[in-house]
């Protein structure tokens, strides 16, 4: 009898305790996060950058860039020049890049056009850098209509467009560039020019620009310095071709546009009758050849001008 009474008392006590606990769950306990998050929960997370956390949509079966390509680290030294991981990333993925109609006499139209192409360049090269496991930040854009000063030079300048590594920015005058290009009306000319300057940003973000600039400064002979510069400019030509080839269908580019692009590569090359001290962009044949290589191959690895044994290809 005593055991039965004891058991009944235990049951009643348990029911009372359960009722009290339920009544106390109307709100979170003091100090708890009220938005459903748990402070500090991600501090030791095993989820990789760029990968959806486990259990969330997109996390199942997907891997982030750090897991697939190693930790993100910018190459340096001679390796950055001749064995850059960017060279191993394969073809740029074809992507939609329909551009707006360009009215070269309207600076606002030019600005809109340049921003559209720059958006496509950002997307294309961001993907390649993720594949390479190299950190990447898109360049700033200064599409100007008033004179100004960059950390590298004042503008307008002799160049219709330029890239300044000190500010990681591309500078193009929306009206000035049309004047510099003698009023050219084919948009592919300006898209290719922007892609060329973007190519210098790609060189900078991949670590090779710093090394090659440093080596060039060590040269006392201007002709030796020019040899470094030519390889850099021809590589930028090729990288521009890589991008233009990747958007050939969606831009779209027809055969006439491609010929215009190659003609422009010839026009911006070194003058055949120019002084040797002024040869910084490569011969007409080489300027066209490297641009064509990029267009056809559509992969950064085809643009390794630093590991070319035949000097005539980079003169």
TrEMBL record:
Protein name, per record: Metalloprotease
Compositionally biased intervals (Low complexity): 26-42
Any one Gene Ontology cellular component term annotated for this protein: membrane
Localization: Membrane
Signal peptide (residue range): 1-22
Major place of residence: membrane
Keywords: Hydrolase, Membrane, Metalloprotease, Protease, Signal, Transmembrane, Transmembrane helix
Gene Ontology BP terms: proteolysis
Disordered: annotated segments: 26-74
Pfam families: Zn_peptidase
Membrane topology, from the record: Single-pass membrane protein
Segments traversing the membrane: none
């Amino acid at each position: 009898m005593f055991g039965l009474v004891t058991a009944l008392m235990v049951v009643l006590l348990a029911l009372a305790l359960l009722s009290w606990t339920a009544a106390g769950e109307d709100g979170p306990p003091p100090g708890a996060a009220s938005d459903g998050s748990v402070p500090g929960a991600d501090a030791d997370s095993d989820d990789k950058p760029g990968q959806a956390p486990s259990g969330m949509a997109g996390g199942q079966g997907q891997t982030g860039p750090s897991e697939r390509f190693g930790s993100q680290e910018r190459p340096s030294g001679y390796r950055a020049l001749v064995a850059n991981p960017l060279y191993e990333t394969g073809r740029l993925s074809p992507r939609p890049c329909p551009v707006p109609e360009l009215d070269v006499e309207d600076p606002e139209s030019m600005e809109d056009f340049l921003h559209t192409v720059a958006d496509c360049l950002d997307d294309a090269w961001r993907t390649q850098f993720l594949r390479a496991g190299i950190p990447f930040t898109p360049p700033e854009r200064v599409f100007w209509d008033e004179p100004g000063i960059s950390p590298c030079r004042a503008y307008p300048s002799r160049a219709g467009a330029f890239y300044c590594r000190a500010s990681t920015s591309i500078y193009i005058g929306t009206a000035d560039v049309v004047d510099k290009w003698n009023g050219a009306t084919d948009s592919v000319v300006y898209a290719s020019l922007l892609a060329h300057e973007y190519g210098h940003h790609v060189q900078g973000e991949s670590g090779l620009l710093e090394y090659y600039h440093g080596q060039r400064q060590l040269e006392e002979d201007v002709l030796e310095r020019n040899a470094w510069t030519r390889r850099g400019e021809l590589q930028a030509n090729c990288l521009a071709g890589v991008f233009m080839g990747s958007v050939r269908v969606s831009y779209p580019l027809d055969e006439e546009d491609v010929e215009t692009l190659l003609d422009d590569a010839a026009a911006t090359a070194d003058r055949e009758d120019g002084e040797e001290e002024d040869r910084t962009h490569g011969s007409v044949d080489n300027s066209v050849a490297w641009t064509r290589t990029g267009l056809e191959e559509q992969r950064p690895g085809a643009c390794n001008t630093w590991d070319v044994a035949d000097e005539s290809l980079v003169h």
